[in-house]
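TA notes, week 10

Several of you asked for a full example with nothing omitted. So below is the full record: structure tokens for the whole chain, then the designed sequence directly under it. When grading your own attempts, check the secondary structure regions first.
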């Protein structure tokens, strides 16, 4: 019978949700961070505060890719120019309530995601 030739490098890791493995030494810091988040239930943070590099347009891009659509295809379904859609995805053009509802219908999500 063959013996393993390498020592397992995951022995000092803890499993989270059967998907993520983290070093055991980091678990206490993660638990503290999660506790702080859960203890601050009355404090609401905006998307920009949590993810400063993201904006509502990031949701358009993610959902568009999930649906397997190009910008050109999505723009056609919405009845807008591709350049306008690109500007929305890049945070250069605001997304109004009517556009949010149209996006939500095409991308199968809640319109509030885009506001």
């Amino acid at each position: 019978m063959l013996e393993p030739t390498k020592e397992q490098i995951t022995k000092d890791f803890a499993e989270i949700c059967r998907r993520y493995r983290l070093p055991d030494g980091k678990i206490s810091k993660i638990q503290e961070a999660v506790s702080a988040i859960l203890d601050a239930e009355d404090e609401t943070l905006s998307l920009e505060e949590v993810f400063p590099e993201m904006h509502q347009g990031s949701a358009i891009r993610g959902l568009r890719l999930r649906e397997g659509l190009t910008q050109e295809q999505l723009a056609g379904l919405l009845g807008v120019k591709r350049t306008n859609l690109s500007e929305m995805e890049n945070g250069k053009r605001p997304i109004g309530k009517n556009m949010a509802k149209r996006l939500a219908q095409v991308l199968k999500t809640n319109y509030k995601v885009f506001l």
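The chain has two domains: 13-41, 52-114. Use that as a sanity check on your answer.
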